[in-house]
């Protein structure tokens, strides 16, 4: 009785072992058989199918770039970039797979090619659209050099050569020395101070500035549209004198008092 149970148990174990064995593929050869386990082969086939699927998706027309959408951040100044120029440049990415396009690379290409761009953000909208969010540089003044006029932003970069009356409302600074071109940074050592003064005066006052002059005594003369003049020393005291000028202007605006000139070049403030 015990022997019979023993052999029954043995037969059951053998059946279970057969069931647990993975199936195999037998390939006949002239001298023997090649035995390939089915499980590794199936895994290999699945990997091949995944690669083929990925390749077909990447080559599919579904994700080819067909539409461009430009969204510009509003600016108080006239635009110097035309949408047609941006779209023409972006034609190089046309009919390429949106899955393979790198937003960071496109942003870098655009900022290097168009100096007037202050910031660019590329957004993919599947299956076939690129959305370009961009913001132009804000001009603070116009540099006049050898009969040519350039827009300058807070970074002291000459990012656009003017043609026509685009910068009619911006103050002008004449630079007679050297030959400047688009893409140059201003060599004038006092330009950063001028840009700092204009930026603060525009933000904190209501005056419209038309022209600036660097005087022989290394001071800055600022002209407004209503014939007012401000004098600031270009030197170590510039920041403190500029803060003082802003305080005086705010006080006069609140009281409604009239003046023609404010001269801060000397120890005592002169208001005429």
| Percentage of residues in DSSP E strands | 25-35%
Number of domains: 2
| Gross geometry | elongated
Terminal Cα span: 128 Å
Instruction: List the strand order in the largest sheet.
Output: 8-7-6-9-10-11-12-13-14
Structural class label: alpha/beta
For the biggest sheet, the summary is:
9 strands, mixed
* CATH domain topology of the largest domain: Rossmann fold
Give an overview of the whole structure.
With 272 residues, this protein is an alpha/beta fold. It folds into 2 domains: 63-136, Ubiquitin-like (UB roll), CATH 3.10.20; 141-271, Rossmann fold. 33% of the residues lie in helices and 26% in strands. The protein is built from 6 helices and 14 strands. It has helices spanning 2-20, 38-58, 83-89, 103-113, 191-204, 238-255; strands spanning 24-28, 33-37, 67-72, 117-125, 129-136, 141-145, 148-152, 158-161, 172-174, 209-214, 219-224, 229-233, 261-263, 270-271. A 9-stranded mixed β-sheet has the order 8-7-6-9-10-11-12-13-14. A 3-stranded mixed β-sheet has the order 3-5-4, with helices on one face. Strand 13 and strand 14 (270-271) form a beta hairpin. Helix 5 (191-204) packs parallel to helix 6 (238-255). The longest helix is centred in the first third of the chain and has 21 residues, at 38-58. The radius of gyration is 37 Å and the shape is elongated. The N and C termini lie far apart (128 Å). The mean pLDDT is 82.
